[in-house]
Amino acid sequence: MVVERAEPGTFLSLLSDGDLAALLKLGTFRRFASGERMMRQGEPGDRVLVLLEGHVKATSVDSHGREMVLSIRGPGDVLGELTFSHGEPRSSNVIAIEPAQAQAVAASDFRLYLAQRPAAALTLIDVISRRFRDANSKRVQFGDLDSVGRVAARLIELCERYGERTDAGIQIGLPVTQEDLGSWTASSRAGVASALRTMRDLGWIKTERRRITVLDLEALTQRAA
Question: Which strand ranges, in their side-by-side order, compose the sheet holding 56-61?
Fold first, then answer.
């Protein structure tokens, strides 16, 4: 059941049955409410969370107190994977954007698990490498786009990962707010609101409370190119 819920390309989805079973025997099961802070920027990296259900956002707060969304993570991902090795301070927060469940594993236990299961260690390295490559690609792409283009690019990503095709279009079921889109695209809240209004006026999307339906994916793709 855990593997069935894991999103494609995540750490859990790529593990062998034996490695997965061994990992899930470690640590303790935790539940988190929507909006709950699961990890805090600056705290010691003394544990990792294996996300079993729900979606979270990784955020970072700069010296001026501005919060930036770094990524959205889903079932199958490992959280805290960059700081567990030496217990270094966490570089980001992890906040549940909907009710979530996770296995909390002590950093020392996770290190021993990876040492004893080299295939799992290589899988984790591969997942982290792909994540960094994708982030670098997005950074280059965003450098040439205005706020409409950046929001369009993120909506396309959300469609690919969480979109559900309906008679009306592709419905993004993930409860992402305008504030999340703004910090995820390096745009102001007003800029995101204006971008979404433009897309609505052009007939590309339909917005409801905490829900976006993409009506014209091709138009968004062309705008984000």
Answer: 37-39, 93-96, 56-61, 67-73
